[in-house]
Amino acid sequence: MDPPDAEPFEPLAETETETxxETETETxxETETAGTDGGTDGSEPDAGxxxxxxxxEGGEPEPPPVVECPLDRPVTIDGGCYxxxxxxGFHLIHKDFEASWDAVAALAEQQPEVLxxxxxxxxxxxxxxxxxxxxxxxxxxGVQLAEYIHQTLxxxxxxxxxxxxxxxxLEHVGAVAELAVHxxxxxxxxxxxxxxxxxxxxGVSYAALQPAVDExxxxxxxxxxxxxxxxxxxxxxxxxxxxxxxxxxxxxxGGEGAFPQPRFAWLVGRRAELESQSLLxxxxxxxxxxxxxxxxxxxxxxxxxxxRQHSGFGSLLFPEVGGVGAYKWHDHGPTTRxxxxxxxxxxxxxxxQGSSRLGPVPCG
Length: 364
Hints:
- This protein has a single domain (about 85-350), classed as TIM Barrel (Alpha-Beta Barrel).
- The model is unreliable at about 1-60 (pLDDT under 50).
- The two termini are about 25 Å apart.
- The protein is built from 9 helices and 12 strands.
- With about 375 residues, the protein is an alpha/beta fold.
- The longest helix has 15 residues, at about 295-310.
């Protein structure tokens, strides 16, 4: 029998060898906004003082109502306020290959925790349903990056729901720590609206990133753990399904088995020690680089199953805690891969099932 989850992860009050991430060569976004809440009260005009067209007795139009939004939720171009901060799963997409992620786009329409993420926003996607990707390598310093994030989030007509920095790796520790300190000291109102991805790889130790990780946690920044094991690595991780699942659980958690270095379990511990309100999210690798053997859809499902049953933090798959995102939806892999991901997301996350949907991975 599989062990039950450890104590569920509690979100903010409601929330290695290293590989170079794949990048897009796209121009800076030109965005537009659609808001959510706020706006007029919907009451009917007074027949004694206004004509049917909404004008006053003298024929002058009524002035628009004054919308007041909290500092961290600016007024959008259509007179609403940005949504409150909540947990999300982030799906990094290439906007030019929609056929590779149309099932994920449909999921995003149904599940408010799912955010499509890219450097440039698809024209049809409202900014409030989008996370913008940027990189430390685009800026001369962490302070410059922080100022860019502030200006991006303060732009009421174009601001994304979240800005994510790709990524925290060893060479960016100093800049990301500087970013976090500047955001905490100068722009605390944006806590929860920005964050970073944490580098992946077999040899990654989050403790090596600690100077930046601790500052990010103090700033209540979002942290997205890149969990990109290759199917071939999983199959080489043991001679039985149980052994391979133990390998994958250790890859996730760290501090045990083939992965003694501090990883996700350590991160959860640091969050608690620093009394941080940072939202922690997951992202699974979905490109051919990681799904590199036949029957890849079974391994993709197994990543969900092992996290659900053996990571100790299985509830992080649930929508109310943000669910799991992915890297990266573009022209790699079969066009049904996004549908396979969504099926597992619905099984383990939305329906909160603990049983394996597709069974053991055929590694023979």
